[in-house]
Amino acid sequence: MNILRLAFAGTLFLATATSAVVAKAADFITIQLKDGSVVIELNDKAPKHAERIKQLAAAGEYDNVAFHRVIEGFMAQTGDVQYGDMEDGYQPQAAGTGGSSLPDLPAEFSDVPFERGTVGMARAQDPNSANSQFFIMFAPGDFLNGQYTVVGKVVSGMENVDKIKRGDDANNGAVTDPDRMIKVTVGK
């Protein structure tokens, strides 16, 4: 009887471990850029934000969305799905002011620092106003620590992030004819 219990426990452990590996694979998104792909591992310390990004990616909402604000030595911001692409009436002058059709999310601040490759959620002055926009850090930004939700980190393809077209410093990084996320998928 004890051997049967041990065999069952071993099978249960194996099944649990296998499902954990499968679940872990879904904790990534891949962004296809003009210069190659970028794989982002989503942070388990910000589960609501990670789930939102996966939801929008799976629905194709991030496809062809611009990097509307890109500041040399700081970050590249994207994810304003409200304005869609050029065929759907994308408005470059308004990019960065919207989100998605979903409600804003409550902040999920953590002790994860903003380093090169960190992915954070963009928001307005209200800490609970993050929605769909996110940014990828070109360099450390300690002044953001504890002020913005860290949703993930780039685990491969940072060299492709480095090639994203920069914006106008005099205009808060606004980009004319911006680079775009060609396609965003859930998984590696």
How does this model look, in words?
The chain has 188 residues and is of the alpha+beta class. The chain has one domain (28-186): Cyclophilin, CATH 2.40.100. The chain contains 3 helices and 10 strands. The strands form 2 sheets. The protein has an 8-stranded antiparallel β-sheet. A two-stranded antiparallel ribbon has the order 3-9. It catalyses: [protein]-peptidylproline (omega=180) = [protein]-peptidylproline (omega=0).
* Helix share, percent: 10-25%
Tell me the number of strands: 10
Strand content: 15-25%
Total domain count: 1
Shape: globular
The CATH level-2 architecture is identified as Beta Barrel
The radius of gyration computed from the alpha-carbon positions, rounded to a whole number of angstroms, is 19 Å
Count of helical regions = 3
Major β-sheet, in short?
Answer: 8 strands, antiparallel
Contiguous uncertain segments of 5+ residues: 1-23, 84-94
Q: How would you spell out the order of helices and strands?
A: HEEHEEEEEEHEE
Oligomer: single chain
- The CATH H-level superfamily is Cyclophilin-like
Please give a quick description of this structure.
This protein is an alpha+beta fold and 188 residues long.
Primary descriptors:
8-stranded antiparallel β-sheet, two-stranded antiparallel ribbon, alpha+beta, 10 strands, 3 helices, Cyclophilin, single chain, 188 residues
